[in-house]
Amino acid sequence: MTEDEQAPSPEEMLRVIEEQSAATSRWLYGDPLLLYVPWGVAWVLGFTALFLHYGLGDESYAPISQMQAVGVLMASQLVAGALAAYGYARLNKAVRGDSNARGTMYGYAWFAGFTLMVVICTRMTPLLPEEESGLLWAGISLTLVAALHMAGGAVFLNWPMFFFGGWIAAVNALGVLLGAGWHALLTAVLLGGGFIAVGVFLRRCQ
Fold this sequence. Notes:
Elements: H1 10-29, H2 32-35, H3 37-54, H4 66-94, H5 98-124, H6 130-155, H7 159-178, H8 180-205
Helix pairs in contact: 3-4, 3-8, 5-6, 6-7, 7-8
């Protein structure tokens, strides 16, 4: 037997097994970097823009209007949504049966929830001052994100997803109580940064 034909060492076999296990996990459950990090970057950019508009007092910290800040948030979320949709599409190709059905219904729940949010907020926005209307949109959207993350954690038996939903709910509640500027700041730092951290952590755990 030549040197090239010798059996691999236990260390090499363990490395191959770990690499294949990680690849299989990403194939079955999706790549966390693709599913979480784009949303984190979008929230850091968008809610930082809103924070600079609102400030923590009576004056803005930068010459940016609310619509410009919302434009940054929406544009970055569109990119994040496209990347996440690509990740979920790859995931759905790999999963069949009941898991695929649960994933499809869960996706429809997101669509229905945010459609209803748009209807409610569009109806209420003219009745509120600019800052409070912005807080209404942000607060309700994060409430939906928190509830659907916790529901998704329960449906898919995913504890990190469930607990992260609870973290979103807690940060959102505190921000709503403190006001629009604080809400934008806390969301950018603790939730935008949180999405990035969760994505990196879950990827390392795979």
